[in-house]
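Why do we bother with holo predictions? Because pocket geometry can differ from the apo form. Keep that in mind while you read this record for 4'-phosphopantetheine.
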Amino acid sequence: MSKTPKTLETRGMNAVFPGSFDPITSGHMDVLTRASRIFDHVTVTVMHNARKRSTHLFSLEERLEILEEATRHLPNVSVDSFGGLLVDYMRQQNRSIIVRGLRAVSDYEYELQIAHLNRQLGDVETVFIMAATRWSFVSSSMVREIASYGGEVDEIVPQASARALRLKFADVQRPE
Ligand code: PNS
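The structure, written out:
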């Protein structure tokens, strides 16, 4: 008997890179670019909970716009969104590979738990891609924090995110 479930063999090398992307950072872009070289196609999917009040800085539409612009140069990457369980999205899209980025050992425990749960809930595999060490300290929450005080984030996010952050915090004055 084959060890690999038939469904995994037949769904092709198309992966899903899920996340909140509030907003997408250079670390995310690094993982996505690496994934786009490995897989035939990668869908970057903004996961949102339509029933939960959003605590995000950017609306779903804004996050999708930023992602569209930031990924335009990657021909085998598309952008999507889903409000629900990731495994339901995977099933709906007939995808079986999830890509997640790892920055440091501290990410591992959380990611391991989610990967195991997702495999239990659905017929999916999670592939981890290590972001380059120069991005190991970058997170969307830190980026939001820096930008909210009028700090410079151009080095750690793609241009589309930097522009959107500047617009969002246009009224913030930095002390002399
Ligand atoms: O960028 P993030 O916030 O680390 O991404 C986490 C995300 C959105 C991928 C994860 O929370 C998720 O998959 N949410 C969708 C709901 C779901 O499937 N939850 C169960 C995971 S076990």
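Residues 1-10 have pLDDT under 50 and may be disordered.
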